[in-house]
C-alpha cells in the first residue's frame, strides 16, 4: 500500500483493497429491509411468498458474493511511463490502456459505506473513444497516489490560489431551491414504489390513514394551505440536509498541474478535476426564488465530463450562495472580468411575445378551472375568477422580467448571453469552441422579425441559446462570433441574390 503521495509511476500490477468484498455484499441490506417491512405489515406471519423471497435472497447472495470475489481477484491496474492500464473481467478478461496524455480528469468518490471502510472509487475521464474508466475499492492513500500520478503526467504544472470554500452561513439558501417542493414528491414517490413492490398498500397503513382523516375532516380552504405548509416545512428540512450532505467542506481551487479541482461532501465525498485546457466557459444561474433571496450558483462549461447527467454533477462549482460570491467565482474561473459586461438589449418585439405567452397561460388555467367549476361546483368557478384576476399582474411582471434578462455581448474571446426568468442564466463560452450555429424560427417569431441563435459546442450541455435576436442581425453576429463557420452559406446566399439584382438593373 502507498503511504505517501509519491507521483513516480510504477510498472507493477496492483489490485483493489480486499475490503471491497464487504462492499459487494452490501446489496443484501435492501432486500432484508424489504422483508422486514413485509414481516411488520403481516404481523410476524410470513407467507409462502415471503419464504420464497428469503430463499431467493440467499441463493443470490451466494452467487453475487462469489462473482465479487472473482472480480476482485482478477482486477488489476498499473501506471507505466506513458499509459494507465486496467485489467478486469469475470468470464471474459479485458485489458484497457489509456495514454496519460489523453486523461482529462480524475475524480474521487466515496459513499458512506466506502468511507466507513476507508475506500474510494476512482473515475478517470479520457478524450476520444476511451470513455470513462472506473476503479472501485482503492484504499484512500492508493487513490490519492493514483490521482496525483495521473494528473501530474497528463498536464503541465502550475499554481493558483483557492477560489471559494465552504461557509456554514450559506445553508440559509438551501430552502430557496427546487427541492423544497420537488424533493418531497420525489421521496414520496420512491417510498410508494418500495412499499408497493413489497406488496404493501401505503394508504392502508395507520399513519397514512390518520393524516388523510385529519385533512379530510376540514374544508378545502383550510386543508390546502395546511397541506402546502406541511410540504414546505418537510421540504425545507430535506433541502437543508441535502445541501449539507452535498456541499460540506466544499472547496474549489487550482491544483498544482493547472487543474480546476472541486472537493465536497459529508457522507459521500467527491473530488472532481477539470483540466484547464478543457475549460470552455462558465455559467451563472439565478433561479427565481434563489434570486429573490440574493443568491446564485455557478458551474463550469467544460468538455470531457461524461454524459448529460455526469456533466451536470461534475461541472457544479458553487452551491446556492450569495450572488456576489457566485459572480466573483464566475470571473475567477474565466480569468477575466466579464460578469458586469453591459449586454446588448433585444428588440421590443421579444417583450410583446413574452407578454402574449404569459396572458395565454393565465387564460388557459382560468378556462380549465372555470370548466371544472361548472361541472363540479361553484367553489372552483369562483376560484377561477379570483386566480385569473390575481395572476394577470404577476404574469405580466414575469414577462417583463424575462425581457429584461435578455441580452448578449461579443467579447474578443467569449460570447456572453443571458436569458430566463424562472432561471436566469448568464453564460460565457469561448468563441473558438463554437463548432456550429443553428437559426431557429417559428411562424410567430418570423412575423415578429425574431430569430433564436444556438451555438453548438463540444462542452457542457453542448448547445447555448441567444433567444429572440433581431433576424437581420443574427447572421452577422454568428459570422463575427465564429468566423468561417457560416461563410459558405453567406456566399451562396449572396450568389442567389445577385442574378435578381442584375435583372432589375437591366429592366431599368
UniProtKB/TrEMBL annotation:
- Kindly indicate whether the keyword Transmembrane helix belongs to this entry: yes
Q: Name one Pfam family in it.
A: bPH_2
Name all YdbS-like PH domain ranges.
72-149, 404-478
Q: Which residues cross the membrane?
A: 21-42, 48-70, 176-195, 220-244, 358-375, 381-399
> Which terms are listed as keywords in the entry?
Membrane, Transmembrane, Transmembrane helix
Region: Disordered; residue ranges are 299-318
Superkingdom of the source species: Bacteria
Instruction: Name it.
Output: YdbS-like PH domain-containing protein
Amino acid at each position: 500500500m502507498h503511504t505517501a503521495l509519491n507521483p513516480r509511476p510504477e510498472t507493477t500490477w496492483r489490485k483493489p483493497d480486499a475490503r471491497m468484498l464487504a462492499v459487494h455484499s452490501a446489496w443484501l441490506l435492501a432486500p432484508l429491509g424489504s422483508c422486514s417491512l413485509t414481516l411488520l405489515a403481516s404481523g410476524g406471519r410470513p407467507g409462502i411468498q415471503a419464504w420464497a423471497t428469503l430463499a431467493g435472497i440467499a441463493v443470490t447472495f451466494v452467487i453475487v458474493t462469489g462473482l465479487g470475489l472473482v472480480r476482485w481477484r482478477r482486477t488489476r491496474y498499473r501506471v507505466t511511463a506513458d499509459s494507465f492500464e486496467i485489467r478486469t473481467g469475470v468470464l471474459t478478461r479485458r485489458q484497457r490502456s489509456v495514454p496519460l496524455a489523453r486523461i482529462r480528469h480524475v475524480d474521487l468518490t466515496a459513499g458512506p459505506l466506502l468511507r466507513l471502510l476507508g475506500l474510494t472509487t476512482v473515475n478517470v475521464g479520457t478524450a476520444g473513444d476511451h470513455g470513462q474508466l472506473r476503479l472501485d475499492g482503492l484504499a484512500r492513500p492508493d487513490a490519492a497516489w493514483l490521482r496525483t500520478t495521473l494528473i501530474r503526467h497528463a498536464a503541465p504544472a502550475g499554481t493558483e490560489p483557492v477560489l471559494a470554500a465552504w461557509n456554514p452561513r450559506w445553508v440559509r439558501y438551501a430552502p430557496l431551491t427546487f427541492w423544497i417542493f420537488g424533493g418531497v414528491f420525489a421521496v414520496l414517490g420512491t417510498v410508494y414504489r418500495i412499499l408497493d413492490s413489497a406488496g404493501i398498500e401505503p394508504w392502508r397503513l395507520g399513519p397514512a390513514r390518520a393524516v388523510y382523516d385529519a385533512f379530510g375532516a376540514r374544508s378545502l380552504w383550510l386543508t390546502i394551505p395546511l397541506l402546502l405548509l406541511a410540504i414546505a416545512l418537510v421540504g425545507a428540512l430535506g433541502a437543508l440536509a441535502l445541501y449539507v450532505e452535498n456541499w460540506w467542506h466544499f472547496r474549489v481551487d487550482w491544483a498544482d498541474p493547472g487543474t480546476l479541482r472541486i472537493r465536497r461532501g459529508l457522507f459521500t465525498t467527491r473530488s472532481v478535476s477539470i483540466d484547464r485546457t478543457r475549460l470552455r466557459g462558465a455559467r451563472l444561474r439565478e433561479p427565481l426564488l434563489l434570486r429573490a433571496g440574493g443568491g446564485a450558483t455557478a458551474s463550469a462549461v467544460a468538455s470531457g465530463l461524461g454524459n448529460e447527467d455526469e456533466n451536470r454533477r461534475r461541472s457544479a462549482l458553487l452551491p446556492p450562495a450569495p450572488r456576489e460570491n457566485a459572480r466573483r467565482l464566475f470571473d475567477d474561473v474565466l480569468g477575466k472580468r466579464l460578469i458586469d459586461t453591459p449586454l446588448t438589449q433585444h428588440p421590443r418585439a421579444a417583450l410583446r411575445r413574452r407578454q402574449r405567452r404569459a396572458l395565454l397561460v393565465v387564460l388557459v388555467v382560468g378556462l380549465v378551472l372555470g370548466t371544472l367549476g361548472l361541472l363540479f361546483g361553484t367553489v372552483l368557478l369562483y376560484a377561477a375568477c379570483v386566480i385569473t384576476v390575481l395572476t394577470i399582474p404577476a404574469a405580466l411582471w414575469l414577462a417583463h422580467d424575462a425581457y429584461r434578462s435578455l441580452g448578449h455581448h461579443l467579447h474578443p474571446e467569449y460570447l456572453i448571453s443571458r436569458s430566463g426568468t424562472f432561471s436566469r442564466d448568464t453564460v460565457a463560452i469561448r468563441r473558438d469552441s463554437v463548432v456550429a450555429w443553428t437559426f431557429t424560427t417559428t411562424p410567430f417569431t418570423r412575423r415578429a422579425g425574431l430569430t433564436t441563435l444556438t451555438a453548438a459546442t463540444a462542452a457542457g450541455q453542448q448547445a447555448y441559446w441567444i433567444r429572440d435576436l433581431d433576424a437581420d442581425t443574427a447572421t452577422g453576429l454568428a459570422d463575427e462570433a465564429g468566423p468561417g463557420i457560416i461563410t459558405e452559406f453567406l456566399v451562396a446566399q449572396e450568389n442567389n441574390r445577385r442574378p435578381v439584382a442584375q435583372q432589375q438593373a437591366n429592366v431599368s
